[in-house]
Amino acid sequence: MVRVKEQKTAKGNFSYYKLIHDLIMKAKILQILIIGIVVFTFSCRDSQKDIAEETQKPIPVIFDTDCGPDYDDVGALAILHAFADSGYINILATMASNKHELVAPSIDVINTYFGRPDIPIGAPKSDGVNISSSQKWPDSLIVKYPHDLMSTGEAPDAVKLYRKILSEQEDTTVTIISVGFLTNLGNLIMSEPDELSPLSGKKLVEKKIKRWVCMGGKFPEGKEFNIHLDSLKSKIAIEQWPTKIIFSGFEIGEQIKTGLRLIEIPCENNPVKDVFAISIPQSEKDKNGRMSWDQTAVLIAVKGYEKYFNINTGRFVTFEDGHNEWKDSENGPHAYVVTKMPVPQITELIEDLMMHVTTVAK
User: 206, 217, 212: which is closest to 176 by C-alpha?
Assistant: First the structure.
């Protein structure tokens, strides 16, 4: 009986110590898991913080516009300032590609209205297109709203301004948005080293530009206004450009008609609203709103194309008469966008952006 009792006692002690041992081991494992989870959580938070900070860093942008023959440029400028107000971009300059005397003052009016009167404005000093607005909206703007530039001729040389600004930027960071003639960009590519930079224009572009988004061309082929009017500089700029170019073609903006809701907003002394209110009634074809070519280029440059468009990659082929064709190539240096988001939806988005900035501008 004694032996049986001793065996039971020993067995009981063994079970007790084994239970204690198991609990201790489980506690250590739990402690390791907790530490791992904490480390992983903080690591993820740090990574998410880094991603957020990278995403929120404003994109440095140079906007190049003919701002006059049409008035979608004004809508594009409004969206540009909306994105700047939201912290998405930093507007480095707004270039005039049209030599008409009211172009630079009109750009200055819009920049001043949105609280950025000191944005540099450049203009061509070479031969170039000189064309006015058939709707005469620039005349009304420069009389009604404050601005410093009295004529486009007063603006500094666009090429010099491009070279100065680009030389001061970090490498491969700048986005160019062109919604007019390619006069300035052709001249920039051909520019020689100077006191502003020891690099040629092409080398300077290669070093500093991240992307160029161009409202121009018609796809898969055609003759479009911006490319055609200064076809020589268009050919030079596109063929010699050393970084990626994304084109938003005529057929994209042709479908997107905006402005009717914009001119109904209860906002007085607003140059963007005024331009559309003056111009839309003058044309029967604009009774459902004005075609929005230039706004699409701003949207793509700032927010990317993926949500709104698909792309075809290849090469933009230019001819001396301004006609363009397209050659598909998986590794081509160019791309053009194809409609993805339904037209009514992207129309509403673009007009909302135009209306947002006009209602909050001071």
Answer: 212
Kindly state whether residues 37 and 150 are assigned to the same domain: no
Residues 18 and 103 in one domain: no
Provide the pLDDT for residue 41: 37
Residues with pLDDT less than 50, the chain: 1-20, 24, 32-54, 359-362
- Burial class of residue 68 in the structure, from the number of CB atoms within 10 Å of its CB (0-12 exposed, 13-18 middle, 19+ buried): buried
Residue 281, token pair as written in the block = 């009634």
Q: Which two tokens stand for residue 347?
A: 């129309």
Distance CA 181, CA 185 (A): 9
With a CB cutoff of 8 Å and minimum separation 6, the contacts of 7 are none
Q: How far is CA 224 from CA 10, 64, 151, 269, 323, in A?
A: 97, 17, 27, 34, 7
Structure-block tokens of residue 191: 């520019």
Residue 268: what pLDDT? 82
First to last CA, the chain: 100
Residue 267 confidence (pLDDT): 82
Q: What is the pLDDT of residue 252?
A: 98
Q: Residue 147 phi/psi, 5° resolution?
A: -170, 160
What distance in Å separates the CA atoms of residue 176 and residue 172, rounded to the nearest whole number? 11
Q: Which of 55, 70, 95 is the last residue of a domain?
A: 55
Both tokens of 228, joined, read 């055609």
Instruction: Note the pLDDT of residue 23.
Output: 52
